[in-house]
Amino acid sequence: MFSYFKKTEKVEEIQNGGGIKVELQTNISNSDLKNEHSDPKFKFSPLRSTDVHVEDYGDEKYKLKFIQIVTRHGRRTPESNRTPLTMWMCNSMDHLISNKDSPRPECAPGQLTVLGIIDQINVGKIYRKLFIDHLSFLDSQYNKDQIFIRSTNTTRTISSARSLMHGLYGGSFTDEQEKSPHHSTFLVKPDNEENMYPRSSTKLVFLKNLLKQHPKVIEENQRSRLDNFTKKVNQIFENSKPEESNFRVRGFRSYAGLVNSFDCFRNNGLPIPKGLTNDIIQRMYEESAKEFKSSKYFPEISILSIGRFVDDLNKELKLKSRNDQSVKDLKLSLYSGHDTTLAALLVAYDMYEDKIHPVTSSTLEFLLMQDKDYKEPEVKNVSKSLEKELIKHQYVKVIYNHKPIHIGPCKDKEVDGMCPLSEFLKISQSIIPTNYEEQSKLTQVDRKRYISLIED
Asked: Which domain of life, per UniProt (predicted)?
């Protein structure tokens, strides 16, 4: 759809044919766009709100012009096979949810579970109530020209995107049923081009390791007595008996990794060690968030980890802001990614206001808003002067898990809680690498400079 995306051979089709039956209860009013199930296992993470406020998407002064949604996948299995994957319940990639109790396919490492699929369907249903039923922003029937979908090349993110789209529009996602003439492709970039999550580079790995020695990180860890807490968590794993829980991660290297493994058990209704109280679990999530947030001490981390994806998002946003013909009908872009995708974006824009690790099925929305009383000139070719005029009447609002958040460098320039588009693009430019390959290299001069920074 967009000229700046290279064509790839790998795509996933979404079909707009027959549906599948999923028993989900959805109630909606101005402040309760919620999805809940009578069985507690089917609820979102207790750390994840499902309340949506319709007024955040437009009022008497502003209207919604375009939205980019970046999501984390739903609940999944562990990526390692240290524990039997028969403990989890999964479906094949050809089905969203199978009503057959057996035979059910075995789970693969890192695969979306049935509960994870339900999570994403729920997210899609929330957006259907919002964008179709309440705002009439999207057509009630699936229109492939209105929606662009991109996923990383993992089964759980592709399955998450398919599940969310089913919640939004219904339709068959299996080849067993007759294919619909109305279909779209999911863009899945080749691994060497993927930029929706941090990719290892010499400098990025060096900086992340050096963060542990940063004076501010050391000071915070000492103040919070992190060593004592970590010993306590490890002792819980040591004391946990196999019959109590299969979740035991001794000598873990990071809280982000620990929380990811923990989620696979607790959020799928599997037993966890009795010693992991709610207070300890809460702090595990908080320590993981601190790890993500600490990357702000080296701004280069954001540039190298997520800057190229920011560039993709901004190119699309600029095309839409200037009414480029290539995105004439586009209203929603969905990006199916990971916790590292969301965390990196939150840190890069200095808007990580939440205290915890991005939970499964989290959503980060970039809303392009426009002055409602501004009448756009109808022209095909937009001049530089007209582009400036258009941008002057547009703003970016950011919503994380249905709660508005604020871009750090733009707080003193906000208009009604939104960042003027011109400021947003300027801030984004500071995150985008000018030459990724060169900036990823690490010279001996760089090493000495960074080490001297933390020693001063």
From this structure: Eukaryota
Nearest-angstrom CA–CA distance, 202 and 440? 6
Distance CA 361, CA 45 (A): 9
The residue type of 230 is T
Q: What is the distance between the alpha carbons of residues 443 and 165, in angstroms, rounded to a whole number?
A: 45
DSSP-assigned letter for residue 55: G
Give the type of residue at 379: V
73 tagged catalytic: yes
Q: Which residues of 40-76 are buried (b: 16+ CB within 10 A; e: fewer)?
A: eebbbbebbebebebebbbeeebbbbbbbbbbbbbbb
What are the backbone angles phi and psi of residue 347, rounded to the nearest 5°? -70, -45
CA-CA distance, 359 to 289, in Å (whole number)? 11
Q: CATH: 3.30.2290.10, 3.40.50.1240, 1.10.150.130, 3.20.20.150. Which one for 1-214+299-456?
A: 3.40.50.1240
Bridge partners of residue 420, in order along the sequence? 395
Token pair listed for 28: 């909606």
Which of 56, 73, 214, 338 is the catalytic position? 73
Q: What is the mean pLDDT of each run of 10 residues along the chain (456 residues)?
A: 30 33 30 33 58 92 98 94 88 69 79 92 94 96 92 93 90 47 70 92 95 96 97 94 88 93 93 94 97 97 98 97 93 97 98 95 97 86 88 97 96 97 98 97 94 86
Of 257, 288, 311, give the one whose Cα is nearest residue 439.
311
Distance, in Å, from the CA atom of 280 to the CA atom of 229, rounded to the nearest integer, reads: 9
Among candidate residues 263, 311, 339, 350, the one labeled active-site is 339
Our answer to whether residue 339 is catalytic in this structure is: yes
